[in-house]
Each structure stands twice: as structure tokens, then as C-alpha cells.
Amino acid sequence: MKNIFRLVKGLLPLLGLLLSLSLSAQDIVVKGHVKDATGESVIGANILIKGTSIGTISDVDGNFTLKAATGNVLTVTCIGYKGQEITVTDKPLIVVTMQEDSELLDEVVVIGYGQVKKGDVTGSLLTVKPDELNKGKQLTAEDALVGKVAGVNIVPGNGAPGSGGTIRIRMGASLSADNDPLIVIDGVPVSNTSISAINPNDIASFTVLKDASATAIYGSRASNGVIIITTKKGSADGTSRPSFNYNGNMTVSNVYQYMDVLSTEEFRQAFAEHANAPETFKLGNADVDWQKEIYRVALGTDHNLSMTGALKNMPYRVSVGYTNQNGTLKNNNYERINASVGLSPKFFDKHLSVDINVKGSIENNQPVSTGVIGSAISFDPTRPVYEDYEGNVGLGYYTWMNGGKPITLAAANPVADLELADKLEKTKRSIGNIALDYKVHGLEDLRFNLNMGYDIQKNDNRENVPDLAPSMYTGNQNDGTGKRYKYHQTKRNTLLDFYANYDKELKDHHINVMGGYGWQRFWYKNNSVTTDTEGKELATPQHAEAELYLLSFYGRVNYSWKQRYMLTATLRADASSRFSPDNRWGYFPSVAAAWRVNEEAFLSNFKALSDLKLRLSYGQTGQQSIGSYYQHLPTYTASYDESRYYFGDQWYTTYRPNGYDANIKWETTETYNIGIDYGFLNNRISGTIDYYWRTTKDLLNKIFVPAGSNFTNMIETNIGNMKSKGLEIGINVIPVKNKDWEWTVSGNFTWNTSEITKLNTIDREDNYVKTGNAGGTGKYLQVHMVGETPNTFYLLQQAYDDNGKPLDGKYIAKDGSVTSSEEDANKYVTGKSSKAPYYCGLSTRLTYKNWDLGINGHGSFGAYVYNYVKASDSLDGLYGGTGVSSNILRSTLETGFTQDRIYTDYFLEKGDFFRIDNITLGHTFDKLWNEKTSLRLSFTVQNVCTLTGYSGLDPEIYSGIDKNIYQRPRMFMLGVNLNF
After folding, report:
1. Following DSSP, what letter does each residue of 73-139 receive, concatenated?
2. Which range is the signal sequence, renumbered to this chain (predicted)?
3. What domains are defined for the chain?
4. What is the pTM assigned to this prediction?
5. Of the residues 83, 295, 396, 753, which has the maximum number of CB atoms within 10 A of its CB?
């Protein structure tokens, strides 16, 4: 540390000298000293002649020298202190005393059902405000959080534009139940399936609640953490004219790598050597790279316009947005239209505050089947893309034929699948609320808040494939009959929250008491029908309708003394209609304490310490989101038309009972958390450290039950316990900050581990739950097992020869012998899971005057990925018994596997990676035609590179099973941001 201060002491005067080189001759040389209220020197304070770019910084002793003229005003600023203005006189020495800026502690952060000062926070939470200068391409809201928060692992969606990512806070606390965090948008808890309807440009901040103290106020839905999204609001200045912001960009995307398959000539040679094809079978004469046939260079555009202002006492903000992004797979497109209105009027001498938010979006998604990726990898490169057949079979696209008839077991032409299938997923969504906050006249410490909100979503999906399309011979009716599929779903989420809040300051004491009631209803209805091109039904129409109710009572008490000692206690009681009356209510308490150690007298001389807070918390949260809405009730399924019973001269619909558990109840998670918030050198270095451990009991799990004990062989019930723990470290550093330069660095690191401790009534060594289906019946590659991490791979141990080459179809049995059996009895627990125990994020931004350069990256370590693309490839795939030839991977020639070996651990690989997400270079032009106008131009490269040892295309796969993955493209973006 002493060496660092010596280096700083030597560099700061030099930097101050360099900053003063541009000074013109002035009247006097001003010498000064900057100190704080206790007399300690302030290092690195910025001293600037007001109205100019002339300035310097204070050295390690707080001293500075600057040429100035008598009467000049010096502005003195430093992080953690209030700014000062000093007028230059003829005095030989200027002494500047800086006062600590309590704004950091007084900053208000959003928590559940209210707000608190940042200094009073006792739980583990973090507020993230999007960095407008260093955010890269953000198509969906979760993109803004990738790599930004310790303990939060976000696996972005695949290469399809608009695809939703997977969000996990502290790995999730459940197994079969929902592991998504609760998303709350302006006070409205919404569906966790996707937040793509929210325009990222409308988001003001994310507040991530991680420990039980912070999340317990949401009780039944908070076991997996909470993310509170607050959108931008209007300006409170009613005299100013409206201000406008336009934010737009244009993008070009491309696929920068392909699966390493054999070239046409290599394929011909491999076919001649390894294919067991009859002599009468002939390869084609074409030379086609099928992967390049399905991909394209994709263009996209994004436009957003907002207006912010106030009409008298009513601040407002209105915004509209339009996004159109092509996917790199042909015919894949995502289009979104957004609009939002926010009004914040105040009435009755500002005692009644009204907050109105309405957001609407229309999403048009033209998806494509990811199966075409696998088809393109394996399709015979000697076959042409286009071919004409008698009767217009295939509609001009190559189709596998035998004796003049299409082969129904062959792979369909991937180009035809992209071009001929007309798919559209249209989503209309509106989220809104009105919140009334009344500060009681005469008793202003007491407030009443009423929040009424809704989330309505309508989905209309269609898929039209014409008659004679190649895929209609390999699917649907397998005879060329076309398909018309329609699906409609309506979902409604309505809520009402009413709470009272009493907030009182008594000298050094601050107390805040809140209590309330909540009601929420979820309802959905869907139906689907599949017909041929003439409207004849090809399958029995499907329909479903269900509703779920949640009732809640909740309360919280916050107490602090001099913002030094803080205590928080919460209690929430939740009722879910998923459970029977005997098990309907769950109770979720929490308590937390915090101690601002740096306020104590014994640290008063430690001036390098800006902030030090110790936090300790305990709490319980619940989980009820599993399966259908009617877990505890006996329900019945009506028979299909072909299953009806004929009696007399009439057909009767029969009903068969479904499995259920009348005693199903709440899953409960207990969490302990120890945390430290720290800051050094006027918070030039700051961050958090958290350690937690938790146990989940009565896991809601899907298990097999003995035959005859229920109406099905598998039910959802409370079986199992799990424990987990983790360490989270976050740090923010400002190495350089002066009048021209600013360099910021933010990083975070997370270690998590989970272990299943109970899984059934009686746990045996061979007791486990299969999971991780690779596609197809019974193709499970992972298990949940006692003593193991969830999603641990359960595979065959590959046998090798003396040279280390894998033996085809040979495995090590449990007794150590070599066997060819692929039975479960020979599989073993690998101890390797798709859950990443380590992950990190790194962001940095460097600004010089009006230039800025930003870089973001994130990584994951310790997870494993099963390369199913390689495992399902074999030499026998060169020619199948159906009379079809297929290409293979180059790696298949190296292994020599004659059949697909989809259970061997040979294809289990480390999924470690670090990805540079984006690099952005921008320049801002200030004061274009008046003081309030500015223009920023930027250039961004997205998905710059991935550092990994994984042999597949991309190791960042949440399931850990790599199959037909739509790879994320590299994107180049030109951006414009105009304020006027």
C-alpha cells in the first residue's frame, strides 16, 4: 500500500503539470490545499477555472498549484464530497475545506412495497442503472443485466432475435418447480416467461433482491430472488418545455463459424470407404454447402423516441419504439412496436401523488425450426437444393425419392423448410398500473398506498405449410398433405395491493412501519386446431382454461439509529389456490441487521475508509409454482373423438382421472446471509461481499409412484430437500478521474454450489430422478440424485485402447470390466453438472473529453456441456437402411464410431468460457444549436469473441446439452442518440 501511495504521490504532480500546460499567461500563481472537515488532506480533487477547461488536481498531500487571475472562480470537486466554488484573491494560499456528501447514503432505492435510503438497506440488494454509454446492443430487458450483478447468472437467448434468456439468482432454489426470479415492473409482478415486451430504452433501473431479508416481503414467489424494474418518469419542472430523445441504430449480423463437416470431395471419399451402401446406390453430382444455404447476412434496425416534460403539476413521459431484426437463419424475423405513457400528477398540496403507467407492445415473430440446423449439418452435399419431380412433388426442392415416391423416414430439405413454412407468432401485450399515494393531512408521517395493476397478453400463432412440400412427406400425414395450424391464448394477470406506511424521524432515530394486503388473479385460456389446406381437421382440437388466486398479508419494520445501527423485520402470509384449505397458507418471516462500522469513533482516523457496513440476515420464502393450477384436486380429461365409447346407437365421451396429491403444500426456503459493503478513498474503490447458505425443504418435485397408488405413474408432490451456499464479490474502481479523463472498472465474481440432500420417502443409492432429455423418448442424460448437484450427468464411462483412442461401443462397467451394454446398470454418476459453480462479469469505460470507449464481458467456469451434435453422429450415418445418404462431422472420422453413442462420457466437455460481449466507441457533440442539445454517434461490435476450450460452436447453453443450437451471431452496430 505504501508503494502505491508513493507512486500516486509521484504521478499526481506530474499529471497536474500536464493538465496545466495549456494555460495562457495569467496574473498570479495560485497555491492551495484541499482538506476535509477533520483536517485530513483530500487526494485527487479536481480544481478547475470555472467556464474554462484549465485546471489541475490535488496531490497526495492535498496541495495544488494553478495559474489564474484575480477574480477567477475555482470549482473544486471530488468523489464523496460536495462541490465548492472559491474566488481567487491576492492571498498567497487558498485553503479549501470539503464537506462530505451524504447523497450516497440518502439516495433512495426501490424495495418491495416502498423505498428506503440506500444507507438504511440491511438486505442483499443491488441497483443497476443502464450505462447509456456502454450498453452494447440490447434487444430485450435482460440483456442489460448480463454480467452486471454478482450472484445473477443470465444465459442470453440463442441466435434467434427476441429469444428470451434464462435468469438465475443464486442458482435457483428449486428442482422441478419454477426457478425463475419474480419480475416486478413498476409494482406489477408479471409472468417470468419473457420480458421481451419491455423496451430496454424505457428502463431507468433494475433492483435485484437476493437474500431472504430483501425478498421475503414478496413471500410465496421470491425463493428465486426478485428483479424490480423501474421505468423512466417525467420531469418535475412544470415550467420547462418538453425535451426529446431519439435513440436509434442499424445492425449487420453474420454467423462467423460453422460445424466442421466433410467437404463434398471428402464426403465422397468417406462414403466410398465406410458406407455400407449397395452398388446400385449413387451419390449426386452437386456440390452444396448446406450450412451456407440456410444462413444469411442479417440486417436490423431499432428506433426509439421519447418526450419528457411537465404540464403544471403533472410530469409526464411518452415514448414509442420500433424494432425490426432479421435472424441469421433465412426467413427468421423479429418485429416489435412499443409505446408507453407515464403520468405523475400531484394533488391537494402535493399530499396525493398519482403514478400512472401504461405500456403496450405488439411483437411479430417469424420463427424457424432449429431442426433445419441439424438437417443442414447432415444433408448430403452431393444433392442439389432444387429439383423438379413429376406431380410437382417437393414444389421444386430436392426431395428424397425411392421408386418415384418420397421417402418418409428421410430428413427434409432444410432450405425448403425455411422457404415454404409460413410461421408467425403474434403477441399483443399491455402492462399498466395506477398507484395512489396519500400523505395524510396533519399527520404527514403516515401514508396510504393503493396500487391496481394488470398484465394482459394475447398470443396468436400460426403455421402454414403447402401441399407437396418436402416436410409434408416426412411429417404431418407423411403423404404430402399440407398443414394449417392455429393457436390462440389469452392470459390475464390482475392485482390489487393496499398498504399503509408510517415513517418518522426522531433526532437520531428513524422508524418506518409498513403493513398491507395483496390480491392477485392469474387466468388463461387457449385453444388450437390443426387442419389440412382445405380446412379438414387432422387432429382433435385442443383447449384449456384455468385460474389461480393468491392472497397476501404482509408487514415490515425498519429502524435505524444515526444510520449506524439498522434493523429490519418482515412477515408475509400467503395463500395459494393451488393447495387445499388445510395447506393453503404459508408464513414467511425474515429479520436483518446492519452496522455502519466506519461511523464508529475507533475508525475516525482511518481516512482511507469511506464506507464499511456489515449486514446479517435470515429469512424464509416460499414456492408454489409447479404444474397445473389444480394440484390438489381430482381432475379428469375428456376422451378424444377416436377414444369415445359406442353404446346403443350413440357415441359417448368418456373421462379419465388425472393423478393428483391432495396433501401437496408449500415448498419453503430458509436463507442466511452475511454481507459487507465497503468503500475506500472517497469511494473511488467500492463494492460488496456476500456469503450465504440456504436450505430448501418440502421440494415440489415430479416423481414416479408405484403402480396402482395413483391414477398415473408420475405426480407432483413434496419430496426432497436441498442445500446450497455461495460467495459473491462485487467491486467498482475509478482509477482515473480528472477534467478530461475518466476510467471506471466494474467486476463481479460468484461461487455457488448446491447439493440434493433428500429426494424420496426412502433414499437408496440407485434412487434418482431422470432429467436432461436430449430429444426423443427416454434419452435422458442427467439426473437429480441425493448427494449430487442438480442436473448431474449420468453416463457410460468410455473405454479406450492402449493408445488412448476410444473403443467403439465399449464401456467400463461398475466392476471394472469392459462391456458393450448401454443399460442403466452400467451408467455412473459423473459428478459433473451443467450448473456453473463459478461465473463473473467485467465492464470498463474510458472517456476522454467527448470520446468514450466501453467494453463488457462475462464468463462461466466449472459447468459441463454434452456435445450431443457429435454424439449423435456416426459412420453408419453415411448411409441408412432407408436409402438415404448423409454427411458427417470431421470428428466422426477421427473416433471411427459406427453408431451414434449418445450416452458415453467421451462427449462430455468442460463448458468454461469468457465472452467479450461488446466493444463500443462513441463521440458526443454538445450544444448543437442550444445548451440542451447533444448528439452521440457510436459504433459497436457485439459478440466479439469467446475464449473457450469447448469443441462445439458455443458452450453457453443453460441445459448443458448442445443440440441444433441457433448460434449467436456477431453483430456490427451504428448508433445515434440525439437529445433536443
Report:
1. EEEEE-TTB--EEEE--S-SEEEEEEPB-THHHH-EEEETTEEEEGGG--S-EEEE---TTS----S
2. 1-25
3. 2-101 (2.60.40.1120), 104-231 (2.170.130.10)
4. 0.87
5. 295
